[in-house]
Write the structure tokens for this entry.
Amino acid sequence: ELYIDVGATDSYDAKKKLGLRNGLYVTPYSDFQIMANPDLYLAKAFDNRVACALVCDVLNVTKPKTQSCTLYGIGSVQEEIGLRGAGTATWAIDPDVALIVDVGIARDTPGIDAPGERLGGGVAIDIYDAGMIPNKGLLQLVIDTADRNKIKYHLSSMDRGATDAGRVHMSRFGVPTVSIGPPSRYIHSHNSIISRKDYDACLKLILA
């Protein structure tokens, strides 16, 4: 039930003077900010710009000539309307394994009680969502890797909603897939909040 007041008094003002029409995009103006707690960052679209940043950091840190595998970093499109970019990218690459990076949902705001799923709770490792149940062996590998490297994490689930993993794991003959990421408050709104410590923990886990 959102409406945006553009200062028009009638449809003539809106259409003729301002040039507004059906189908125009509206983008909230949201500056990046470091909050009073300097570990917390606020910006628009952390879901899923934060994952794009993590993928870039991983690619910048890894040295291709020393890797025993070919590493692909993908920034896909249209996840929210059918995981479309993930489907075409996975079909083209045909990966042996996939690690999906997406924000977790921080449930540390009033009216929600979910211990662990909070800013500062470490990496959210998805054990279930509406689009995928992760490969058991790969999930255990991620958990064991976090434990071995003393990386803070928590196990997360979503009854509704999914990530690109929902399309990736069904590609061709199937792809072992797991989804991880730093928790974020207020996803799908014009401002969301993440913890830099959670981001760094996620980067460390992916590299490990």
Q: What stands out?
A: Strands lie at 33-34, 40-43, 98-101, 104-105, 123-128, 153-157, 177-181, 183-185, 192-195. The mean pLDDT is 91.
